[in-house]
Amino acid sequence: MISYLLFCLGFLGVGAVLVFTKAVRGLSTKAKAAVWMSKGIAALALIVIYTQVYPVRNEADIFKYFDDSKVLSQVSQENSRAFLRIMVGATQERDTVYLNRMNYWFRSYDHGITNDNRLIIRINAVMNLLTQSRYELNLSLFLGLSFIGGFWIYLFLGHFTRWKSVAFISAFLVPSTLFWSSGILKEAVLMAALGGFLISTLRLTKRFQWKELILGCLSLWILSNLKIYILYSLIPAMLLVIGYSWFKSRIKTLVWTLVWVLGFYGIMALIFPSWSLISTLQGKQFDFIQMAKAVHAGSQIWIIPMDGTWFTMLKLVPLGIFNTMFYPHLFMVKNALTAMAFLENTALLLALGGCLYGILCKRGFSYWGWGFLLFSFTVFALVGMTAPVVGAMVRYKAPVLPFLVFAIIHAQPNSLLRYLEHHKFTQWLTTQL
Q1: Is there a single domain that holds both residue 60 and residue 197?
Q2: Which of 7, 94, 153, 158 could make a disulfide contact with 136, Cβ separation 3.0–4.6 Å?
Q3: Any bridge partners for residue 300, and if so which?
């Protein structure tokens, strides 16, 4: 009872700042309140699922990062210098005794540049200074981060359309995105970083502002330490969008994008000479398969094992996209989560069919639409080829669904677009924003 009361207090407090003040401008109070309530309902649904359906707390992602942060907060009372070293990433061998107290600071299977568990643990540890390590209050702050990230994505998408309602639905109401970004999870922070990076980049292309540069650099740092594959997938798409907005020429835009992408990966090769994209993906795939076997994941699917060659990786790209788009299928539906994922995939596939028909019927498709599709399907390919577990794929693709939905809607046949534009619900929703 006390826990729910604390959550209500934290939820109402953070919500009051976001909804009823000028901290978030660009949406009506009604719209912000509706979004905030939907995030609260999603957060409670996550808690119910991870306490009733999957009751093992140590295995629940919505609890494990917070529980480790409580251990880290205790270190601050025992040895403040060790706590500061851990927080800034300057740990020494003598700090291992404290790090070993946490269950998820180190990974049993790990292959890559960064361990993104640590960032979420650190963020929770900072919040604990304000919340006295109360889960319910930390959850409210995570919901605030996710809300702000969705708002920035809404503003970014709104730059490319006259339909505020489509930008609103894409940014806030896609079921998987709403659900998985409403807990003490990486996705909540990822939404904030992704939205911050996109809106700051967009604004900086128009006018230089120090606050936008700071936001962009901070968001870039979080993305590179949280989900670097999102950043790698985003860069070509952003270059494509920015390049076409400048040159208004497809050939020049393609050349611009290709030069910058090759330059970026060339710089990466100089900074990290021992790093290899193929070996990293191969290691990620191997680690994930081993972890799935260790925990007896019930939704594993077949996938081609990577062997370190480009040929195999290229074969995995369409298979990865297929797996991410088509799973879970009807016969895999076992509970509300899989039912929601199945219905969402079905709706996306139907809309994608309309998208393909619309592109073929039209003489062209918007430059930003191609950019958003490139971003979405690149992430789908990477997720599908490295995480052959249906539950993981559903969750990992959630942050890019707003961009896919936004692009697909705008690529529908003109007759359907006219119908949607003049529909009473669309017109009513626009008046409420």
Answers
A1: yes
A2: 7
A3: 389
Does pTM top 0.85 for this prediction?
yes
Q: CA 184 to CA 141: how far, in whole Å?
A: 9
* pLDDT 10s digits, 396-427: 999 999 999 999 998 888 888 888 888 888 88
- Identify whether the C-beta of residue 108 lies closer than 8 Å to the C-beta of residue 291: yes
Place of tokens 């990966």: 265
Q: Report residue 88 CA to chain centroid gap.
A: 24
Please give the residue range of the domain that contains residue 366.
Answer: 274-433
- Is pLDDT at 112 greater than 70 in this prediction? no
Q: Are residues 402 and 299 in the same domain?
A: yes
Tell me if 148 sits within 8 A of 18, measured CB to CB.
Answer: yes
In a domain, 44, yes or no: yes
* Number of domains making up the chain: 2
| Dihedral sign of CA atoms 353, 354, 359, 365 in order | negative
- In a domain, residue 231? The reply is no
Last residue of a domain, one of 159, 194, 222: 222
Do residues 215 and 194 make contact, with C-beta atoms less than 8 angstroms apart? no
Positive or negative, the CA dihedral 3, 9, 12, 18 is negative
